[in-house]
Amino acid sequence: MSQLLHLGTSFVPSSSSALRRNPTSSPAIHISGNKRTTIQAKIREIFMPALSSTMTEGKIVSWVKSEGDKLSKGESVVVVESDKADMDVETFYDGYLAAIMVEEGGVAAVGSAIALLAETEDEIAEARSKANTSPSSSPPSPAAAAAAPEESVGAPEKAAPVKAAATVTVAKMASSVHPASEGGKRIVASPYAKKLAKELNVDLGNVVGSGPMGRIVAKDVEAAAAAGVSVAAEDPKPSPSSAPVKAPASTGIELGTVVPFTTMQGAVSRNMVDSLTVPTFRVGYTITTDALDALYKKIKSKGVTMTALLAKATALALVKHPVVNSSCRDGKSFTYNSSINIAVAVAIDGGLITPVLQDADKVDIYSLSRKWKELVDKARAKQLQPHEYNTGTFTLSNLGMFGVDRFDAILPPGTGAIMAVGASEPTVVATKDGRIGMKSQMQVNVTADHRVIYGADLASFLQTLAKIIEDPKDLTF
Amino acid sequence: MHSSLSLSFSSSTAIPRSGHSSELSCAAPPSPLNLRFCGLRREALGFSSPKRNDSCRVIVSSRGRFKKVSASVSDNGSAPKAFDYDLVIIGAGVGGHGAALHAVEKGLKTAIIEGDVVGGTCVNRGCVPSKALLAVSGRMRELQSEHHLKALGLQVSAAGYDRQGVADHANNLASKIRNNLTNSMKALGVDILTGVGTILGPQKVKYGKVGFSENVITAKNIIIATGSVPFVPKGIEVDGKTVITSDHALKLESVPDWIAIVGSGYIGLEFSDVYTALGSEVTFIEALDQLMPGFDPEIGKLAQRVLINPRKIDYHTGVFASKITPAKDGKPVRIELIDAKTKEPKDALEVDAALIATGRAPFTNGLGLENISVVTQRGFIPVDERMRVIDADGNLVPHLYCIGDANGKMMLAHAASAQGISVVEQVTGKDHVLNHLSIPAACFTHPEISMVGLTEPQAREKAEKEGFEVSVAKTSFKANTKALAENEGEGLAKLIYRPDNGEILGVHIFGLHAADLIHEASNAIALGTRIQDIKFAVHAHPTLSEVLDELFKSAKVHAHVPSPVSEPVTV
């Protein structure tokens, strides 16, 4: 029953269910006079309407009207997506749409204010300041702040500071003026570029076009947004999937600015906080790498990389110690993973990603090296598919190339152990026969989940690993 | 001898006519039109005597009221067979093909004249190849929609396409369907005559290729089914490379970075779907104040929200493209826009290509219409509700019919075919009037749009005039299990009906497979089925057809009033 929108005339839901929810108010958009301000009761709040009996919250699909638009009774103001359908919602009052409190894409509970309606134009400013002081109940809407003309006080954290930058416009005239732009009077931009500019709050007047005949195309707008020609106040679409990577280029870091997390940074942050719930401990080991270095020298020309060798050695050691390759997710049981997938941490601009070498114990070293190269290329191009970075069962992190001799890694949630690999360095060592000699040695340090992996497990795993690395003939089969 | 016979014949038919009709008497002074008829008849007399017999009857008909006479002629099935064919169809498009097949079924000796390729616009430069391109664009869209795939648990790495491969698919499909059409007609014994057909006079047609000898044939009945060509407004220079019509676009010789589409009707909308899926950015230029005119406003609004706003499309409405110059000498395509109302220059655009999708113009030149005194209206051949051609004086031309785009009643391939079948029914003795309000239409975007009958404003206007009540029921695809399984919940079905008697006035669907879903509604309208009856029909679960099931069930019909099936309505 409730899934049918049986409408007499327009988009106004007339179902009895809606009436039941709000017996006193009209079933259309719920606009009520603000009781507290009876003297100027001209500013009304526009509420999220109940479009069906089961609806508890609604998503704003789009605002049909913009702030400042004059509304007349019966006009569509906003499109709301309920649990059943998208519906246009119309106003029952004349007036001006003073402030939008929940932006497009935002969600608001039924009955909460989503915008303010002023009766006269003069009251728009007043309504806006009100919108500012009484933030909407909708969590994903930093919009209330954006709506305010002045710097907002209680605005959601990330919005305000960057907004100041939005007013800083770089006085840079287009160097290659479009021939049809009549000396810069007219801006020639492709449809998508215009759309992006609106979304990213980029002023097209300051963007240099690189398209045919100096036309502004999408990538120009993206570049301009990244360079901060005019920075968006905030990502207008708070959904994580659509947030483009807009990390400021390393060269152009503006000191003193607050920069919202990119999607990747957000994900790393979440994972790191989650890791605090896992009780971890660490075991270190020093491994002599002379034999491994010799092997590497020998087969380097065949495209084999040190990362692949280490991954292979680790995988072979894990075969003998399946518990180290296990994972505990719920704190009540743990899983012996069926395959040995070695994730290797890679720094890419703006973050960190862990491409996974799947079945590293079974794949031969040459294929593994090729696979690694492919994964790194994909990671750089941001084209890794989810199964290529989130299926690791054991993680390797190597900072040896920076000369780091030892460090400590945080265990990624969902895996049993991570190994931090330091640089292999020539070291003076005393041998059992009483001599002193020089050997290349590296320190590894494994962090593990003590709920499932105990000290002895790690110790014997490391012993096995050391044996494999010190006598690496098995690595090449 | 013969003439005396025919004289008596003519008087016998003419007398009852004048008896119950005061409109045109036999004694009416012959207009120039009639003189012309007679003149032509004399030529005909020279051929053979049996023909003369028939033509004399026609003389009578040209004097009297055509309607009745032609009816009496068609009733007179025992008349000696004096024609080369019972039915000659000029134009082998979908309309002509449909008429030819039905004519053979009815036992008529049939020929079809085609000056270009069998299949006409639909098969060669319209619906068919565009469906091939849209099939590609639909898949591209799915593969590119990471969000959508992710929701289904699918992972696909970067999807790409080969332009030539896509173009070949469209071309191969067209030639396959063309062969199918040709073979189906050959197999049934329809004579396919090659050349441009021209009407020489009543029941007489010549055809032949340019530069070859012409053949003249006679036919008891003639159907004009010459179709249409893309309409290009003046001021627009089409070069076939950068300024193109749908004819060129369907060959997909290039995928421009930025293409302006003039006109946001079916054709423009479908091409915007193709081009944006293949990576182009699109600018619509629409003369009316809103995009997608002609669609039910609510459907149009939703469609705009799904098909336009989230895609790489922008638009200018309320403007005419007054001048379009193709790209040359390194300059882009230039489009000058003027305000549709004030005609003031408004803007200018420079784009990589422009597609002219401003509708279609009837292809009726060179048909020899002047020989039978028919004057086209904006190129369209005037016809009555039975597709009988009307001449300059408002009289019916006997034995001559016009179907499809050439008459402009409803410019859709399947409408042409239905009109052709209706004509064949009439010439074989069964009166038939096609109900155009039962003919569905579809736009094959992703998702599709389909409709049948009246739009809501049209229904309300009619209700106002005729004094009945109109109600609207809607269902959403979001409530349909199958649509949700496909993760394609975006969509709306809308029913416009009379709550007093349950008559379906119109159904509009926007959503997954809407084009296939509309037929339940169009059949109901064609058969006069009422909502109170159809709501008991059972639909398989879970299927998209349940969207319509819900729609009918949600309608509130006041009383189960038994009322006769309404008369067929024509438009």
From TrEMBL, chain A:
Segments forming domain Peripheral subunit-binding (PSBD): 188-225
PROSITE patterns for this protein: BIOTINYL_LIPOYL (PS50968), LIPOYL (PS00189), PSBD (PS51826)
GO molecular-function term, one example from the UniProt record: dihydrolipoyllysine-residue acetyltransferase activity
Residue ranges annotated for the Lipoyl-binding domain, each copy included: 43-118
Co-factor(s): (R)-lipoate
Top class in the EC scheme: transferase
Positions of the UniProt region annotated as Disordered: 1-26, 126-158
Keyword Transit peptide on entry: yes
EC number(s) per entry: 2.3.1.-
GO biological process assignments: pyruvate decarboxylation to acetyl-CoA
Biased composition (Low complexity): 143-158
Polar residues composition-biased segments: 11-26
Keywords: Acyltransferase, Lipoyl, Transferase, Transit peptide
Gene Ontology CC, one term: pyruvate dehydrogenase complex
Family: Belongs to the 2-oxoacid dehydrogenase family.
Name used for this protein in its record: Dihydrolipoamide acetyltransferase component of pyruvate dehydrogenase complex
TrEMBL record, chain B:
Annotated active site: 541 (proton acceptor)
GO BP term, pick one: 2-oxoglutarate metabolic process
Key word ATP-binding present: no
Region called Disordered, residue ranges: 1-25
Subcellular location: Plastid, Chloroplast stroma
PROSITE patterns linked to this entry: PYRIDINE_REDOX_1 (PS00076)
Cofactor note: Binds 1 FAD per subunit.
Pyridine nucleotide-disulphide oxidoreductase dimerisation domain location: 439-550
UniProt protein name: dihydrolipoyl dehydrogenase
